[in-house]
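Risk register update: the risk of archive-format incompatibility is retired. Evidence:
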Amino acid sequence: MEFICHVGTGEGRVLRQVRRAPDEQALRTELEREGLELIGLERRLATVPRPGRLGLGRRNVPLDVLTIFAQELAALLRAGLPLLQSIGMLVNRQRHPLFRSLLEQVQADVRGGAELSDAFEQAGAVLPPIFSSALRAGERTGELEQVLLRLVRYFRLLLDARRKVYTALVYPSVLLGLSVVMLGIMSLYVVPRFRLFYASMEIEELPLLTRLTLGVATTLRDQLPLALLALVVAAPFVARWRRSPAGEQVLARLRLRLPALGLVFHRFAISEYCRSLATLLAGGLPLVQSLEISTRAVGNAWVRKRLEPAIGRVREGQTLRSALAASGEAPAIVLDMVEVGETTGSLDVMLTNVSEFLDEEIETRMQRLLALLEPVLLVVVGGMVALLLISVYLPIFSALSRIQ
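Archived output:
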C-alpha cells in the first residue's frame, strides 16, 4: 500500500514523500523511527504501468540506454542547469524510441509539478524498480546528482557481470548449434540416400547399427513437417506460459538446477540483490523500503520469491542477517558480511564488498566450466559424427569383405 505524506524534518524542512507500508499505523511507526514528523497523509491509488500510453508495447528500456541517460543528467545538474531544462536537452538527444517517448511524458509531468521520481515511476515495468526509488531517495536528501552517479556505477557493474556470463557462453552455444545443424543435415538428407545405394548393391541384410540409423533418419524426415507445424502452433502458448507467474517460477527453478551453471545463476541473482540493496541504502532509503525494491530487482523469479519473506521479518524487528538466513538463499559469506555491516553501521559498504566477491566467484566458475565444457563438447559431437559415419559405411565394408 502506498501513501503520499508530507513530513517535517529536524531542520525545519517539509518534504513530500511517497512511502510504502502495510497500513497507516505501520507508516507512522516507521516515520517516528526515522525522526520525522507526519504533517499530512493521503492514500495513493495503485500505480498502473503506462507502456500503452507510449504506444510501444511492453518492451523494456535497455540498461545501457538508461545508464547513459543517468550519467548525462548527473553531468547537466552538476553544471548548474535546472532539472526541466536538463530533461528537455536529453529528450532531444535520445534516439531510442521507447525511452524518448517516456522522457517526453516525464518532461510533461515535471513541468506540471510532479517530482522526477513520481514521473518515472508512472512508466511501470519498462524501467527497473530501483531507478525511480533511488531518485526519490535523492530528492528526499537533496543529493539527486550523487544518487544518479551511484545508479550509473550500479548499472555498469550489472552490465559488466551480464557481459561476462554471456561472453563465456557464446563459444559453447555456437559449437553446439553448429553441431546440431550438421547432424540434422546428415540425418535428414544424407543418411536416407544410402538406402537406395544399399539396394543397388543388392545387400540382403544390413547390420543392426545401420538399420537403427536408417530407421531414426527416415522417421525424422517423414515427421519433420508435422513437428514443425506443432512447434508453430505451440509457440504462442509456450510464450504466454513463460510470461505467467507459474511459468517464471518453473523456468527459474529449472535454471537453478542446471549442472554447474545453476550455481552461477544463483550467485548472479544474490549479487544483483546485494548490489541494488547497497545502492539504495547509500542513497538514504530506509532498510525496509530498500529491501522491497531490491527484492523486485532480482531477475530469477524463484530466488525473488524465497527472499520476499525477509522483508516482513525485518519489518517485525529481526536483523537482516537472521531474515536472510531464514530464506535459505544467502551464502554464508553474505550472512557474515551483513552481520559485520549491521554491527559496524556500514551495511551498504559490506553489501558492495560481498557483491564484488560474488562477481569474482562467478567469473572463476565460468572459466572453470568453459575449460571443461569445450573438450567435452568436442568429444561428444565427434563421437556422434563418427558413429553416424560408421553406421552408414559398415554395410559397404561388409560387402567388400565378402567379395574378397
